[in-house]
Please model this.
Amino acid sequence: MQLGAQPSDRVVTVGVADQQPTWLHRAGFFATTKLDPSMEPQRMLSELLRLRPEIVRTRPNITELILAEDTHKRLRDIGTKMVFSGSEMMTSATRRRIEDAFGVPVFDMYGAHEFHLVAWECPQCGCFHTVDDSVYIEILKDGHPTSPGEEGQVVGTALHSFAMPLIRVEMGDMASRPTELKCCPFSFERIERLHGRSSEYIHLSRGRLIRPSATFRFFSRIAGLARFQVVQTERDRIVVNLQLLSRAGADMRDEVESRSGEIFPEDVALEVRIVQRIDPGPREKHRYVRALDRDRSEK
Model:
């Protein structure tokens, strides 16, 4: 509501974690329709066009599949006034495509099953405000708080888990605090950037490292991608799977290979594949990066 939602708004959710009902929901406000994320993208598009929701809550990669079906740009005319994205990292290219398709801003939400909503993207300062009245968030490196701008492990303590306390839980995410605090009407603590899952850091030989944030930046600059996935099959061997938008050309492989030096060292064996679809495994979200286990990659 602070971002402009009204209780009378109709909501459609696609593949995001269930929101705990509040008194507003129990009173009949924010009427919500849930779409099964296993639906065919064409059917999900048809449902959005039929329901014409004011608010859409979705995962970035599911949205990409829906947008690929919206060849006639019909989503822009259904009256949606805001899109909430969550459950997965969102690249800047995906953000641009969603905002262009719906003609409205996208707000990124950061949550976890243990804590529910952890932080939300603020349009005023551009950072993520942590939900300090329900979870205490620390960003630590080697057990100590990070400096502004320094990457660290996100650690959470639930403030309302009375049945089973959750204290200083390592959430598996990497983030950093802002280097500059812009004026903002919201006083909650801030996260400047979410860098990805710690398991998405690719450890190469000789101690070299490819951060997920660098991976996202690189592929965000490649036009025409619906999805990508970087798979580390051996310590210095990488397979890149590319799922193209319908309008993209087959020369995408050549472009990625020619620019691969921007992110992958020369001595890393790289294979680029064009695939029809990149589907998540059973009961999991889309993973942009599948890195080797740290112990295996260092052998």
